[in-house]
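Protein in question kept underneath.
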Amino acid sequence: MKSKLYIMFAVFLSIFIFLMGRILYIKVCYGKEYSIASINQQTGSLDIAVPASRGKITDRNGIVIAESTPVYNVIFEPATILYLTENNQKDKAEATMLSLSEILGIPYDEIVKYTEKNADGTLVYSPYYQTLAKSVPAETADKIKNLNLSGVWLEPNEKRSYPYSHLASKAIGFTRGETQSGIEKQYNEYLTGKDGRMFKTINGGKIKTEYIEPENGNTIVSTIDINIQKAADECVKEITESFPCETASALVMNPKTGEILAMADSNDFDLNNPSTPVGMAVEEFNALTSNEQSEYLNGMWRNYNISSTFEPGSIFKPLITAAALDEKTINENSTFYCQGYKQVADRRIHCIRRSGHGNETLEEALSSSCNCAMMDIADIMGKSIFYKYQIDFGFGRKTGIDLPGEESASSLVYPEESLGPVELATSSFGQSFNATPLQSLTALCAIANGGQILKPYTVSKIISPNGSIVKEFKPEIKRTVISEENCRKVTQFMVSVVEKGTGKKAKIDGYKIAAKSGTGQQQNRSEGLYTITFAGFFPADDPEIAALVVMDKPFEYADGVTTAAPAFKNMAEKIIKYKKIEPEALEISSVQETKEQSVSISDFTSKSLSEAESQLISLGLKYEVIGNGKIVLNQFPKGGSKAKTGTKILLYT
């Protein structure tokens, strides 16, 4: 009996020693691995990313034009609902699903189906993670959160929204997953924040929930002015409604800084729904192949003002005039003779007036947009000097604007060695080479600002979430191409274009506007395709605004004098009112004197038009109403000044 006990004791002792040895072996060899696994089991049930908020984009005045709002994905755990059902809490489970159905607008049966079982008792659907709804607004999420429902949790996310929808869509751009455009793409690294985390850790045997705050993205302050952008959008709409064309665009810059104030084209789109086709029925779009859809959308998102090119035509003429003056190949007193054409090698190249302009001064040549005078100037300059200034003005080069997708058009500008007599002659009046709208306006701004080519830009500041300036952008002078003196001369010639030349339909009483119209033949000349342009800046003596209006390939023939010039004028009037730009005394050519008696002019600003009219009539003063409003926004001469009876007072409403 004792021997049996000894044997049993020995067996148990052997087993005990073996087990202890095995435990010791596992502890030594695999202890760290199993310890980590144990911790992971306890802590791995919570480890989620806490998304950072993407930074805002504002206009130059701080008005938000792109922002991210918090939204939530509603996550459903069928396993929890099944547990409640099988443990005498069926009412609680049903109440949870009914509440979700009511709040989210999802049929009750659609939610119940996630609790269905297979024949072996396992759930048909994933037991722990079912997305019931995506991107629900915070108000809806709060309703769910306040009910403290079992088996339901909210996954934080955010939705990018654009309060002004179509406004400046090509400049602002959008972000949808991996697809981005405009400022959203160019400044993505600054807009994107750093996600935080929520997870469990074990410390001293205790499990703790840790939270790492997300770092939100920076705010981008753009140079876009919403009010000027609206004026540009209205300009484009006016053109397309009156003169249907392939594309109409309007670009507005500050000529002293290079800041883009507005960028509009007729093929804009809804930034909140960037994949919704414009100009094509949804059914037709859906019938396209995926490659065809991508091609269509990329074309729709293309920024015409920086990515498309055309032969600029006569808006190039002020530039060659300035270049010739700077090179002293001509002077302001030079004269020309136009017989309606110029024979160049084996070609007869016509002027815009087939009957000819006859003898003309340099100012008259520019004012009447004479091709023959420009061909004479280019011939005197020679191809080397011409090409140098063409490139210095920025044609065939990217401007360097801070937007993706800029076109240089370098392959569409004749190199110097290829400039034969005919190519030089046609290039002199803006044909035979291509340019983007941005290149054209940037070059014209050099005349407005005293000869400097500036780098255009769309963002002025980047501001951190705590309000500090991360980065600030200042005007950048790339090079000086023309002297200030010759810029002033050409500016005066361009004023003549508006006062008495081809740009008279852009004239605004009280304001000195320097501008040039253009009509450029495009592609194969036999096809009859044109691009109509009007470019200018104002006030001419101290420019604050430079703008270019383009009507690309109208479906019926039109010209810049009757189409683009009036559209430019209407846009300029809106900008003048918004910016409260003062009239210029030298331009009030309509002042009339009938009697020598002087009277004092009242200040009619902010008063009703009828009140101003009544007072002016009683004082023996004439008046002209500019605008169609009922409240006086500005006047010339100013209130408090003296005027002789019979003087015409300008009232801006």
